[in-house]
Specification:
Keywords: Membrane, Transmembrane, Transmembrane helix. The chain contains 15 helices and nine strands. The protein is α/β, with parallel strands linked by helices.
């Protein structure tokens, strides 16, 4: 249906220990800012808790010349699972860095990710390199100073100690800079969690994804919405693929048992990290779930990802990993962050990579085609809003062995 008066949004956050209260406050704050740009007024209701653990809030979107749009916005909770798998101690993080990097190198997945899009692959590999520099820097310097002594170049001991200390301090300062700019420890935690997910070591996650799939099917059966829109941010896109594919399986099973339901679901992934899991050879179930989405015609999937966002696999078709032919590919679009701001503001935004990764969920200073709040609370469905937008095809601007074509 092209005109929407009732909508249900299911939102899946990324690997984030912050829960529904944070995202409710963010939506309320940023939608008010965006109202000054898009001439829509968004009345965001109080956050309420559902029996199954999800939270929701109502949104009433209105404009002077059209009827209001009522949106049920539901936060699909898995932040408690994230907190259970969120190491607090630095030594635990470094242990995970080593184990996860060797795991990905051994199976070739890090190299595959690098060929697909170099920024996220480099961001994932950087902590490992930094750790090696810290662990090996002092012994290498000591050996170098010792070899100079053998050659007859006598150095006082204190000079060697000072050089070693300065070198290690430089490495630590570089690490702090990377952490402040890229939120490196956050990426490391997500990186390690995804490897455990591929190995089936997070059973509480699988149970939660099954429960959320049942919740999605329940809402579909209610048939009270003009649009059901599943929105996923960052690594939440991985979880949303699982939820949606399992919902498809449940609906097929129910149809075989004579309980058919009209299903038309919109799916919007934002800054997706799907190759992080899909490239691991142990993730057979996840790749099967990706394939199922590619064979399901009633899902309208649009993926928004920005090449300047170094935390995502920008403009990469996640279904192409399976080499599935034929399949219904998601429409790949760029939110065009550069057009949202004045040049000085955009330059500042680009320096904060983690902040840029959240721009998909935030207000802009200029009106552009991508508007998170019009998509989730205004009167057009996702497919209708972007019906005339052409999908980006064969983007290679971030592939190190191909020239850019966009």
């Amino acid at each position: 249906m092209s005109v929407v008066r009732r909508r249900c949004v299911f939102f899946v956050s990324g690997f984030d220990p912050k829960g529904a209260s944070f995202y409710h406050a963010l939506y309320k704050q940023e939608s008010a800012k965006q109202s000054l740009i898009n001439d829509w007024y968004f009345e965001v209701g109080a956050r309420k808790r559902l029996e199954g653990g999800n939270s929701f809030w109502s949104i009433r979107g209105s404009q002077s010349d059209c009827d209001p749009v009522n949106t049920h916005y539901e936060f699909m909770r898995w932040d408690d699972v994230v907190r259970q798998n969120w190491p607090q101690h630095t030594w635990t993080l470094w242990r995970d860095v080593v184990a996860t990097t060797f795991f990905n190198l051994r199976h070739g997945s890090l190299w595959q990710m690098f060929k697909l899009s170099w920024p996220p692959a480099v961001a994932l590999f950087a902590p490992f390199v930094l750790l090696l520099m810290m662990l090996l820097g002092a012994p290498i310097l000591s050996m170098a100073l010792g070899s100079w002594a053998v050659l007859g170049l006598q150095w006082p001991v204190w000079i060697g100690l000072v050089i070693t200390a300065i070198s290690l301090l430089c490495v630590v300062m570089v690490g702090r800079h990377l952490e402040s700019r890229y939120n490196m420890y956050w990426l490391t935690r997500s990186y390690a969690f995804t490897a455990r997910q591929a190995l089936g070591l997070v059973p509480e996650l699988e149970a939660r994804l099954d429960a959320q799939a049942r919740r999605l099917v329940e809402r579909i059966h209610e048939q009270q919405d003009d649009e059901i829109l599943l929105v996923a941010h960052s690594s939440g896109a991985i979880m949303a693929v699982c939820i949606l594919a399992r919902a498809v399986g449940l609906l097929k099973l129910q149809e075989q048992n004579g309980k058919a339901a009209h299903a038309k679901v919109s799916f919007m992934s934002l800054g997706q990290c799907i190759p992080l899991l899909a490239n691991l050879p142990q993730a057979q179930q996840f790749r099967a779930e990706l394939s199922l989405l590619g064979q399901t015609q009633w899902i309208d999937w649009i993926d928004f990802s920005a090449p300047p966002d170094g935390c995502c696999f920008a403009l990469s078709d996640p279904l192409a990993l399976n080499e599935l032919r034929p399949y219904k590919a998601p429409k790949l679009l760029s939110p065009r962050f550069a057009e949202m701001f004045e040049s000085a503001q955009y330059r500042a935004l680009r320096k904060d990579k983690f902040r840029m990764h959240f721009q998909y969920l935030m207000a802009s200073d200029r009106a552009v085609d991508y508007d998170f709040f019009l998509i989730t609370a205004a009167d057009r469905s996702l497919a209708t809003r972007y019906a005339d937008a052409a999908s980006v095809v064969d983007f290679s601007g971030l592939r190190p062995f191909q020239s850019a074509n966009l």
